[in-house]
# Entry
Amino acid sequence: MTHAADAHARHTGRLYGVGVGPGDPELMTVKARRIIERAPVIAYPGAAHGSSIARSVADPYLGADKIEVGLRYPVTTGTIEHPGGYEAALAEFYDDCAAQLAVHLDAGRDVAVLCEGDPFLYGSYMYLHDRLAGRYPTEVIPGVASFSAAAAASGTPLVRRDDVLTILPGTLSPDVLAARLRTSDAAVVMKLGRTFPAVREATERAGLLHRGVYVERASFEGQRVVPMADVNGTVPYMSLVLVPAERWPRRPAPDGAARGLVSVVGLGPAGPDWLTPEAHAELAGADVLVGYETYLRRVPQRHGQRRLVFDNRSELDRATQALRLAAAGERVAVVSSGDPGVFAMAAAVLEAVETAEKAAGTAREAAGTAREAAGTAREAAGTAREAAGTAREAAGTAREAAGTAEEAAVTEVEIRVVPGLSAMQAAAARVGAPLGHDFCVISLSDQLKDLATIERRLDAAASADLVVALYNPASRTRRAALQRGLEVLRRHRAPETPVIVARAVGCTEEAITVTTLADVQTAVVDMRTLMIVGSSQTRILPSGNGRPRVYTPRSYPSYE
Ligand code: SAH
# Structure
């Protein structure tokens, strides 16, 4: 309470925002009941035609001697005649309501505004609070929220341990809803009614329809609890949807099938802000996470989820292990930094699939040969020794067949690539728009290709006047490609060509330098660095606030 409000308090009534709970009068707090019984003025919002839900909940506690103030909403579905549209009509409505209540408060009468559920959770009381709480002593009595009652009514535990619960209004667009649902462990969608078909669509798109529980009139007479998937069309306003967090260990998929899946998930260049909702959902839904330990450290631990941690050198190994786990029915997420398709694990996984396909073919052939050999031996089997040979051959056949089955299972695994923001995009964004026109991306690592190839490509890119983004520019021991690369670029480009050296973009140690081809210092360049070398058109803008801005114009001068 402010001092002004305090001084005023001696002469005026008190304003109460009273949460009456979800419907069952027994779910009202003792305090709410006491205030309702004592306050001489009871106000409640309600539709223009029809009764107030909050009032009917409080009815058992209202004596005959109350002054009742019904606050009737302007029509919400019909045409609005107000020149400012619906928003303005509503603002005017609340101004009127506040003025009506102020008359009682000024006369020293306490006013209890009844709110269904909790007053500060999508309650219209808030608009009166905004207008009156600064002027009168005010107290808000929390109430049992409708979603708590719905969870209780349906026997749906919502969140455990580190699970995050998201409360969403169904009035959001299906796109936003689907994205929010994907990044939530558990969710509540309120404000249904006409919005239900869109909410249902969004839930289905987020892959969560089977988990949704629809609850209508929780704790009221006529309460209904049904699987969300069984509800279609519009629903009454007094309803909501619960999407509880998944229990671990996970129950089998609804169709009962064990579905092996490898998703190769891009984590973005750094931090959760650069992780897409899709990637978040994919990580959350995995049974096993597979990856390089530096990247796995960026994924929050989830109770019950296993991790297979590798060092940085074993990409194909990582991919093969992931495929084997998936072939055994697990949902496996292989993590990559940035985008998984840019110098990263997506290609490694597909390479492992190709290898497995070839191996399965070879094993099938070998099994055929062994079967023939066993046949030959059987024909010749006249003696005990030959009979033993037959048995050995048959065992070999069985082993080969088992090998074939394993490789074949690996080739059946579903592969999903989940894109991420690549480091060059993050680095470019930090300085402006250096990739605004044609550009190319080259890795300077000579582990998977030789130095001559790197030089040849840089030469071609530079002579085509492309902006060049350089990944894996140098490690502690591997510096030659960077030196030679810069020499090649200098042959084609002016010394004042802009160069961006971006280290650890998005991390606390982030360091970004804008320099030129003549001045670039390579000592700081390491494996956490990405470089962008401009084209002949790339320019550095003089900047007022100390941060240079670099851009490559979208148009290119034509050849004459
Ligand atoms: N798939 C990744 C690239 C993997 S190659 C992506 O799309 O970003 C690894 C190289 O990416 C690093 O050597 C470095 O050049 C670059 N890189 C990745 N994250 C970076 C970051 N946060 N800041 C600067 N460069 C980064």
Q: What stands out?
A: The first helix runs from residue 3 to 9.
